[in-house]
Amino acid sequence: MPPLRELMDALNHVVIGKWTDMATMVVTVYEWLITLDMEIRLIWRREWSFTKVMYLLNRYSVVVDFVLNCFRSYGEHVPACRPLFQATAVIYIIGLFLSEYTLAMRVCAVWKMNKIVIASLASVYVVSFAWTLTSFSIMLHSVEFFTFLPFGGCLSKIEGSTLWINYVILFIYDVAMLVLIAYPTIQGYRSIYEHTDLVKHIYIEGVLFYVYLLVVDIVCVTLQLALPDDIFLFGIPVRTLRSILAARALLHLRVYSRHNIQGVSTTHMGDSAAGISSIRFN
Length: 282
Known about the structure:
Elements: H1 4-44, H2 50-74, H3 81-110, H4 115-141, E1 144-146, E2 155-157, H5 163-190, H6 197-226, H7 235-261, H8 272-277
């Protein structure tokens, strides 16, 4: 059992985590309700495709996060804490990269499915995923778990956590993605041929999404440096925000793609609309 001060700090973090996770769950349900009509029309009524599967995995894998996190936050059986943390970490990382993949599809569409951009993003994506999964696995081997009755929950003692490095890598990745989507946005606004509602919505929204994510990345790095003993303190809100933005990105891509199909002229859009319209749910 760790010293009383460390015990109280860990308990305080668990309580804060419970409240933030509960608030995140409410936001998630609200977001799902207000986009349910679009999801039914644009996703569920469409034929099965790879994009549809990725959307559904990104959208509903957060439910698994919430369930595992509930067991982790309220459980009292200490031997079960390690496998719970391991399962939570794996699902969390997979969920993050599902969201990143979904958001990257928008960037690839904006770049007209350029093969160099796709290959570069795929390489960075695979390396980042492997590094994050490996570093999480190594770190969890040194974690000491305990609980504090009657409050319960899997409390942890972590020494030498380097999780902040993973968030720095994610920050650098998001900066690169912001640059990739901001450049054609600026170019599009300079060209009278690509200054259309379709391009404006897809480009500007993509820029805003990555600005939001950069702010979240900064918060995550700050929290990990300030509170290195609790690796999941802000984990669920971060995971959920990325899932929500990724789901919105694909839904909006599909909405504007349908507008294009139903009669919006692509003559004045150059090749941009072709790239955007290439992402379909069939």
